[in-house]
Automatic annotation (TrEMBL):
PANTHER family: BIFUNCTIONAL ASPARTATE AMINOTRANSFERASE AND GLUTAMATE/ASPARTATE-PREPHENATE AMINOTRANSFERASE-RELATED (PTHR43795), TRYPTOPHAN AMINOTRANSFERASE-RELATED PROTEIN 3 (PTHR43795:SF20). The keyword Protease does not apply. Keywords: Aminotransferase, Pyridoxal phosphate, Transferase. Its cofactor is pyridoxal 5'-phosphate. The keyword Lipid metabolism does not apply. It comes from the Eukaryota. It holds the Pfam family EGF_alliinase. GO terms for biological process: amino acid metabolic process. This is Uncharacterized protein. Gene3D superfamilies: Aspartate Aminotransferase, domain 1, EGF-like, alliinase, Type I PLP-dependent aspartate aminotransferase-like (Major domain).
Amino acid sequence: MKTYCSGVCFLISITINMLFSIHVYVGGGYRSSLTWSLKAAEEAEAVAAISCSGHGRAFLDGPVSDDGQPVCECYGCYTGNDCSHLSKGCAADADSGDPIYLEPFWMQNAADTTVVISGWHRMSYDYADHNMMSIELENFIRKLHSIAGNAITKGRYMVFGVGSSQLLNAAVYALSSTPSKVLASTPFYPVYKDQTMFFNSESFQFEGDTNSWKSNNSTNNMDVIEFVTSPNNPDGELRQSILKGKTIYDHAYFWPQFTPIPGPSDQDLMLFSLSKLTGHAGTRFGWAIIKDRDVYEKVLKYIYLADMGISKDTQLRVLKILKVAIKQDTKLFFDFAYDKMRDRWDRLTSIFSKSTRFSIQKRHPLHCNFFHQTRLPSPAYAWVKCEREEDDDCASLLKSERILGQSGSIFGAKDRYTRLSLIKSQDDFELLLQRLSELVSREYDSIKTI
Ligand SMILES: Cc1ncc(COP(=O)(O)O)c(C=O)c1O
């Protein structure tokens, strides 16, 4: 009986071993053929496995400990070796537009979005067709626009930039004819003014708010370039040109997670940014869609002279990311991003609805061709107004309550307004809500005391 049993066990063991070998060498055969990329994959997974208590990240290019191991870079108010310590009294930071809110989506899609870059990957300045831009990536961007339904790209030229930031001035340069006035409607994204003044060209000068300028000038014999930010940073409004002359449509936020998409934009010069679309601000990638050939050639020349094109490593990474964003006709990605923004707005509005001291921008429902429903916008920023006469410096008031935002005057508006970012990490957002609800609930305490 004993001999019989050991015979059966031996046979079972041989079968299991055979099945295992078939799985390793046949089923997963390609895996055994990996050689030089395994080390990189192991390094990438090892650093990603450092949890930092969920309140930070470790990176291969980040700081290292004395024994050469990557260490955690903690988010916001968290400190300590493993980011587990929450600093008491730390301010809720809603200042910058750093779009970390999509990090969980990319972690869930790690297998499809990780890029391995060999030491000899595209060392040349050019692609094989002497182009600075990847045709494959350009095609994917066109496909993305056609699925999102937010821009016409057929028959249009495209130029890539180091973020859309670089393309802002490239566009001004391309549209200017000596001397051009550059305008934007208050409240506007401050970089339009800062860049135009910084480059200090004879060909273009910043002239401030479009509406004020229009009421004092006739546009007939003046050359003006109007920035139209739609949806607008900071207030999320969908905007149209006021002067109907030369325009630069900044569509950094014209994606379904932030706004209903009423139809495709078909403007002469449109700018888009990877930063606000997928959250990859660190990758520094943006693109321009241009109708006119002369303008296109000028933008291309600007990029060529400034950088000789965009990093090929960046273009490979963007391609990988966009392939996942487009997967299943973009539903997965935009569903995730919109759910996140809608949830943040629902929670934020419920707090502000209880306040008479503070208000946020009104949001108007619109039909969204992407989600096939009428819905409210869910902008990247809350544009907060301090309603009391005496609260004329809203950002300072909030700062004294340990909430950091950007003053209205940064956007050319009154300091009675302040911008709070809603696209930062979940930790940052939770702390912001906590501080805001404490602040609003104190309005009731003071009423009770009266
Ligand atoms: C309206 C607007 N345009 C352009 C940019 C720049 O984006 P990028 O990261 O692509 O340079 C930003 C960034 O906050 C923005 O808010």
